[in-house]
Amino acid sequence: MKDIIHNETVDAIIKRRTVRAYKKEQIMDKELDTLLTAALWAPSGRNSQPCHVRVLQDKKALDEINVDFKNLVGWDTPAYTRWDVNPVYQTAPSVFFIFAEGNSHMDAGLMAQNITVAAESIGLGSCIIASVGTLMNAPEGEKWKEKMGIAKHWRFLIAVAVGYKDEEPPVKDRDESHFAVIKQLP
Ligand SMILES: Cc1cc2nc3c(=O)[nH]c(=O)nc-3n(C[C@H](O)[C@H](O)[C@H](O)COP(=O)(O)O)c2cc1C
Known about the structure:
Elements: H1 8-15, H2 29-40, E1 52-56, H3 59-73, E2 94-100, H4 105-121, E3 125-129, H5 133-136, H6 142-147, E4 155-163
Antiparallel strand pairs: 1-2, 2-4, 3-4
Helix pairs in contact: 1-4, 2-4
Bound molecules: flavin mononucleotide (FMN).
Flavin mononucleotide binds near residues 18, 81, 127, 129 and 172.
C-alpha cells in the first residue's frame, strides 16, 4: 500500500463500493439534499451544466421501470444486473436519473461520481447504473421521460441508485499496472 494522505474525502473515495442490496426505508430529505448539492457542484465542460436530474422515489414506478426494462432486454440477462432476478434499480429506494440534450457523458459521469462519493461519506450505499439506458433511450422509455418531465429527444446518460446499505460488499481488485508516473520521457 502506498504512503498516502488520508482525510474524509480520500477515505470516502477508497471505501465506496457498489451496493446492490438496500433496506426498504427511504433516505432522509437532508441526506437527499446533500446528494443533490454534491450533484449540483459537479464540474461540467465550460460550466455548461448540461445535465438534468430526476430523483425517483416512487417504488411503484421503479418496479414498473424494472418490468419494462426486463421485457425489453430479457428476464435472464445477468450481464445487465448482478442476478437475473435482481431489479435494474437494485432495490434502492431513491434513484437519480441523469439526462442531457446531447451526449454529455463526461459531465454525467462526474456528477454520478460526486453523488456516489458523497453518499459513502454520509454512510449511504450507491450503485451507478448504465443498463437502464437500454430502456430509457428506446421508444419504450419515452413514456418514462415524459412522466419525469424530460423531452423525448433528450438522452438518458446514467443513473445512481441510493439507499441504506443492506450488505457490505467485498473489496474488488484494482489493477495498479494501468498507472505510471513519468517524470521524464526518454
Ligand atoms: C459507467 C458505469 C456503469 C455501471 N452500470 C452498472 C449497471 O448497469 N448495473 C450494475 O449493477 N452495476 C453497474 N455499475 C457498477 C460496476 O459494476 C462497479 O462499479 C464495478 O464492478 C466496480 O465495483 P465497485 O464500484 O464496488 O468498485 C456501473 C459502473 C459504472 C462506472
